[in-house]
Amino acid sequence: MTEKQHSRLHQQFDQLLQELTNRAALSEQSSRNLPLPTEAGEIVPRLWEAGIDDVKLAQALSALFKRELFNGIVKDRDSLVRSSNDRCPWLIVDRVLYVSNPYDRAQIEPLMRRKNDPKDKLKFEKLGILAMSDFDSDLVVQASYDHGVSVAEVSGAWAKGFVDELLNEAIALRASDIHINPESHGGVIKFRVDGRCQVCRVPGLQTIERERFRLVSNNLMERVGKQNNYLEPTSGYLVFQSAHKQVSMRLEMAPVKIYSEIQPKITIRLLNNQRGVNKLESLGLSPLHVAQLRSLGHRANGMLVVTGPTGSGKSTTLKAILKDIRDSFPEKAIYSIEDPVEDQLDGITSLEVTKHMSFAKALRSLLRHDPDVIMVGEIRDAETAELALRASMTGHLVLTTLHTNDSHGAINRLRNLGLDNALMAENLMAVTAQRLVNKVCPHCSSMLPITQSKELWAKYQHVPELKNPDILVPVVSNKEGCQHCNFGYTGRHLVCELFLNDPLAETEIIEGVPSNEIRRQQSQRGVFNDLWDDGIRLVKEGVTTLEALENKINPIRVARAYRKADYGKPVGRAYTKADEALLDIEQA
Ligand SMILES: [Zn+2]
Ligand SMILES: [Zn+2]
User: What sequence ranges are listed for the domain Bacterial type II secretion system protein E (predicted)?
Assistant: First the structure.
C-alpha cells in the first residue's frame, strides 16, 4: 500500500469515527482507543469487534459514502469469512454471503458452485447484503435488504418501479424522447422537451448507478419483448398506460463501447405524447396557409410535399391535412404509410414500414387497394419518388415529406431522385417548408419598441418590415426563466412557407431552371412569402423572439432578409380577395 493510499485510508477511518460519534454509536474516548486499520478491509471488522451497533454502523457508512441503505442488519459477528481475492470481494457473516454486486453473475456463480460442493468449507445459506465493494483501496457500503426477499425479486421490483416512474415523468413533461446513455460511472438520463435535449431534472431520475444500469435496460428490453444479449442493435414497441393516457413508444437499443465493456444505449421515442391530431386551424398557421392547404387537400389528384428538418413537425402537419380531408370527404379511401405510425386516426388506414416492407413496397401494394388519398411518410429513394409521382398522375392525391432546406428545394431534390421535369411540373401542386420555433414565456418577457435594444436595432433597422422604430417585439427580460418555462421559452410554434406551383413556375420546372432561381422569381413576383416573413408575423404577435427565429431559420435566409429591398416585392402582404382568386385558379 502506498503512502497516499495509507493516508486516504486513515482519513476515511477518521471520517467514519466522527460520523459514529455524531450518531452516539461511539464515545470520543473509545474512538481514540481504536487501533488504526492497516487496510480498508479491516475497518468494518474492527468496528464490529469494538461492539458498535450494526444498524448505526451501516447507517454511518451509508451516509458517509452516499449510498442507499435498505433494512440493513448484520446479526452475528462470530463467523467472519472474507474473500482472499481482492478482485472479487465478498464476505460471509452468520451464514449470509455478502457481495458488492448481487447482479454480477460472474462474481456470484462460482460462489454458488462452491456452496453446493460438500467438500468446500464455505458455508452460507443466503445471498444477502451488499457490503464492501472493494477491500483493497476503497470502502463502500452500498445496500442491504431484508433477508427474506430474494435478489431476483428485489432487483426486478426495483427496476420496474424505476422504469414506471421514468416513463410517467417523461409523459408528464411532454417529452418527445428519452435518452438513457451509458457512461463509465453509470447511466445518465436525458429528456427532449420542446426540441431541446436536457438532463432530467427530477431527483432520483437523473442517473442510474452503474450496478443497476443493466437492470433498467433488461426491464426495458423485457417490455418490448426482445432478447437482451446486447450484441446487436434492436428496436421494439411498448404501450405504456400512465394515470391519464396511453402512450405508445418506440425503443431503439444500440450496443456501445465504454472502455472494455459493451453497454446498451437506449433511446425511447414517445409517439403520441402531444395532444393528438390537431385541426388545421390549430397548428398556428397563418389564415392564408390554412386556406391554401385546405384547398390543396380537397383536390382529387396531385402531389403535396411538406419539407423541413427532422423534428420540425412535418408529420403533424400532414396528419392535420389528412384529418381535414377525412372530415370533409368521409367517403374517400385514405391511407398512410409511416415509419413509425405516430397517431392513429379513425377512417385512415395506416401501414407501418418494417424490415419486411419498405415505403416503396407498401405504396405499390396500396395502389391496388383503390385509394383516393395516400400519405407517404417520407420519400427517401428514387423508387418511392417514382411511385409517388405515378400515383399522383393516375388520379390519387399524394401527400409526402422530404428533407430540404426550403420549399423550392424540393424541386431539385426530386430531380436528383430521377423524376422527369415535365411530369413533376404537371403534378407537383405545392411544397411547404416548416420549422418549430420556441415560444417566448409571457412571464419572463415583455413587448418593447425594437429601438430599445441596441443590439436588435443595429441588426434589423434596415430590414423593411422591422425598420419602423415603433414596432414592438418581445424581449426576454428574465433569462433564467421561471417555473413555467425553460430559460424564458416554453412550447413551440410552427413557422411555415408555401410554394404554390403556378403556371410560370411550371414552365421553369420544365425548362430545368434551378430551384433557388424559381424561388427568387416567385418572391419578386410577390406570390411567395418565405419562412422569415411568417416568422416576423409571429414576432410582431409576441409569440416568439427575433433570436429564437434566427436560431431556427437558415442563416442564409436571414441574410436574405437584409437584402430584401433588392427583391422589390410588396411588403407586409396580407390575405386578400386577390388570394382567393388565386386559389380558385389553382383549384380549377
Ligand atoms: Zn412564470
Ligand atoms: Zn418564464
Answer: 367-381
